[in-house]
Amino acid sequence: MDERIQLSFDRIKEICKEKGMMEYQPFFTSLAQFLVKAVEQGERIKDENYYVNQIEALKKDLDLLYAPFLEENYEESYVNPTFACDKFGMQMGQLLSFLYFEELSVIPFVYEQTSYDKIAIRLELFLEIYTSFAFSFEETGKAPSADTVKDILYWYVSDYSEDSAENSVRERFTFQENLAYGIITKSDLCKPNYLFRYGQYISENEIATANYLANLPEEKIRLMADTFTEGFRLGFIAAGKDLSIKETVNIRYPIGFERVVKVAIENFAKMGLKPILFPAGTDIFSKHGLVKIGYVSTSFNRQAEYDHREDLALFLDGHLVTRKLEVLKESYEAYKDTVRKFAGPACLETFGEKEFLPIEKKEAPAFDDEGRKLQVSYRSKAGEMANSYIHMEERSFTIIAFPIPEIGENFETIFDETIRINTLDYMLYQGIQTTLIDALNKADRVLIKGADGNETDLTVELCKLNNPDKEAKFENCVADVNIPVGEVFTSPVLEGTNGLLHVKKVYINGLKYENLRLEIKDGVTKGGSTTNLPESAVEENIMFHHEFLPMGEFAIGTNTTAYAVACRYNLFEKLPILIAEKTGPHFAFGDTCYSNEEEVHYVNPDGKEMIAKENTFSKKRHTNPEEAYFHCHTDITIPYEEIGLIEAVTPQGEHIELLKNGRFVLPGTEELNRALDELIP
């Protein structure tokens, strides 16, 4: 690999000085210069003394590497598909823009110091494209056809699918003393220099977060970590799952939180679990659209990531889908014993980024109807395959979130408030939520109506109980897998669930939706509308290219403390779904909360078993599994102030009011209004 890299590197250095391919030469010169800088940086960081440098110097070096991709340079960057298409035409521009964006992944690979094969194939890809242009200009005096370039890129994606699948399964399910593990366990985490070992883009968010956590007392760090890991452990207990048969846990975290992650690793070790740490994907093989899975830093350019979210649309066809599924199957089979011992993900998330309103560009790659069907088919089959090896009924998860400095001048106060929210007295909520569930158990449907301009008018049908003394229609969710405490939820009966769901403002996967409307008929929505984003934002980010999605969850959030903090500091536009879903009723579209775990017994604290775990689609899991699951679950919350009425309706026609005009009115739940009352001047 060293020899391959050196040969490619020497040739690329020559390209930096070459001329002659008319309008294409600046593109190749720019990309060659980037690759040379990346490889040279890889050599520079082999000297441990490099990281002794001042933070300013380390950041300057990294910023220079990322320069072609950064927002301030994006308008006239070849990474920008609009700029590239303006220079080279639509098809060629999209392909060359993809190539430049794909080469971005070289940066973290050179920092890993072990991914030499990944570096080599990307340098060689660049040279293959360049040679194609050089030969064509020499022979014909013009560039090769876009189809010739596409063919090279297509076979790059196809040929390396096998290696990428094997790498993906190995890094996601096996413990390795890799780059991240070494950083967390061996670095001085009180000095932010360690941040620059990742090769990920490091912004002021990561530096300020690391500095803030470095100055927190050890007991507060331990409180954060203990809440996080205990939630994971309790998830196994609540579901009656055996943690002792598991060996690994995947910790997903934002860079800058390493002090917390280090204690979490220690806590998991006491449970017999080793940590799996891997970076969020940056290349065509590992990206998941706008969703980032793994350890991750603040985006270097959210518009660039948005523009390239569907680069796979340039190449995806039936042959490639088949190829990707074949190699994925082979990889799972090779690691099946290891995968079986995977306990699940423990996710530490952040919130507080500034609002991002993406610009829709006709030049950005996007799936057509056929491509969408292929993508949905691949995701469905890949998800089904993963579940067959992971055994979802044996694993669990946990999620917790904290703010980042970008949230504003009250960062430290909001951080402390978030710790308080994440560590609320779950016994108090457990009792109140039992009261709510007792009322809901009497009902066969729930009516939800909006207020204050919210046009929601929705009926949610509930399952029937065979034994009311031993069964429940809603799960009592306290602070285990889903931190913070505060919701009761169910899988609705789809038939009879009808009406309009309307939210004046909601944030979903980093995008702000204004006046989001979803029409629901027999529990299914076929797309929706919003007044500030194009239709594609609903189709891609909520529907995930499905023609329709069922309502997989209906829940009532009870965490009024979180709601009050959001009001006090104007945080609604920044709250993650994890906290936002606890601040009002919410509805999830896609799979139920129990997908692939329908046979697992979930028992509420009062001893009653939750039985509403499936719907018309998930019932097909044994007979037609491809139609059973949608492999997405998107939460949409209506805040308390937009709720006019939530009432349970019994078979006898009795209406039991639960919330009215944004307040809890069911006897026994009034304590939840205390935090709301504190907001009144």
Describe the structure.
With 681 residues, the protein is an alpha+beta fold. It folds into three domains: 2-159; 171-188 and 217-400, no CATH class; 431-677, no CATH class. It has 23 helices and 20 strands. Strands 5, 6, 8, 9, 10, 11, 12, 13, 14, 17, 18, 19 and 20 form a 13-stranded antiparallel beta sheet that branches. α9 (161-173) runs parallel beside α15. The mean pLDDT is 93.
Are there runs of 5+ residues with pLDDT below 50, and where? none
Average pLDDT, all residues: 93
Tell me the major beta sheet.
Answer: 13 strands, antiparallel
Number of domains: 3
Shape: globular
What is the total tally of β strands? Answer: 20
Strand % is 15-25%
Tally of DSSP helical segments? 23
State the helical fraction. 40-55%
Radius of gyration: 26 Å
Question: How far is the N terminus from the C terminus?
Answer: 68 Å
- The assigned structural class equals alpha+beta
SSE blueprint:
Elements: H1 2-15, H2 25-44, H3 55-66, H4 81-88, H5 90-103, H6 106-112, H7 116-140, H8 146-159, H9 161-173, H10 179-186, H11 204-214, H12 218-238, E1 248-252, H13 258-270, E2 274-276, H14 302-307, H15 318-334, H16 336-340, E3 342-351, H17 369-390, E4 398-403, H18 411-422, H19 426-441, E5 445-450, E6 457-461, E7 471-472, E8 475-477, E9 487-490, E10 493-508, E11 511-521, E12 524-525, H20 535-541, E13 549-557, H21 560-568, H22 577-580, E14 585-590, E15 602-603, E16 609-610, E17 633-637, E18 643-649, E19 655-660, E20 663-664, H23 673-677
Parallel strand pairs: 1-2, 1-3, 3-4, 7-16
Antiparallel strand pairs: 5-6, 5-18, 6-10, 8-9, 9-13, 10-11, 11-12, 12-13, 13-14, 14-17, 15-16, 18-19, 19-20
Helix pairs in contact: 1-2, 1-7, 2-6, 4-5, 5-8, 7-8, 9-15, 12-13, 15-17
